[in-house]
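Example record for the data management plan.
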Amino acid sequence: MSRLQTEFQRLYRPLRPTTVETLGQGSVAVARAMVFELARPADWEQLSTVWRGVQRDLDLPAPAIAASGLDGLQLWFSLSEPVSLAQVQSFLDHLRRRYLPEVAARRIKLMPTVDNPLDDTTSVPALQAATGNWSTFVAPDLAPLFAETPWLDIPPGRDGQAHLLSALKSIQPAAFSTALAQLQADLQANEAAETAAAQPPEPPEPPHTAPAITTTATQPRDYGPNLAPQTFLLAVMNDPTAPLALRIEAAKALLPAENTATITA
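Corresponding structural encoding:
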């Protein structure tokens, strides 16, 4: 076995999904290689947001970068332990929705699936019968050079390919579970925020106004122009609208002199 075959096996084989028996679920297809492809065009500037994001945001090891030999650039993720195809698709789709939400779905291929498994025909490096070109793993600093022509027209050097793969690590089970849970939680939070932002704002409550307090000015009573002094004083004394001080003075004026002195004292 060559060094390239050894490194590829360490990271990705078995390449084709296998079937395992699980408790309570029966037969389940599992895989340890996951491929995220962007094509037509093979825009590394866009795909690099995924490559950088999984390392920066999810604390995962860097995936391999590959030119497909056809029309796309790919990220090859390695799992130390296989997971179900449902988990593979969930992980890759959450990456798509987080990092490339504006990219048309027709430009993105997420593998493997039941209908589109990985096998030796999709392996890297490999001759592509449809074009006569070769797929190849590429270094991150060379990836932009393959944006317009994501292939080689000659076989890549096997030692160089092995060297690129030797620096890569597989995703451990706990790290994969944590990353998938974080992707799901972040997506739910973003969707909730978008839903809240789309809701029309509630109309403001009308300002609270205290009921108006109205006061009715008490009009002074008209005693008439021709009242006798005693009658006038009696009217003032008995007038509930008159100021209390005036009513007292009127009462004093009506009392005999000796009683007035007593009240004054």
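Summary line stored alongside the record: The longest strand covers residues 26-39.
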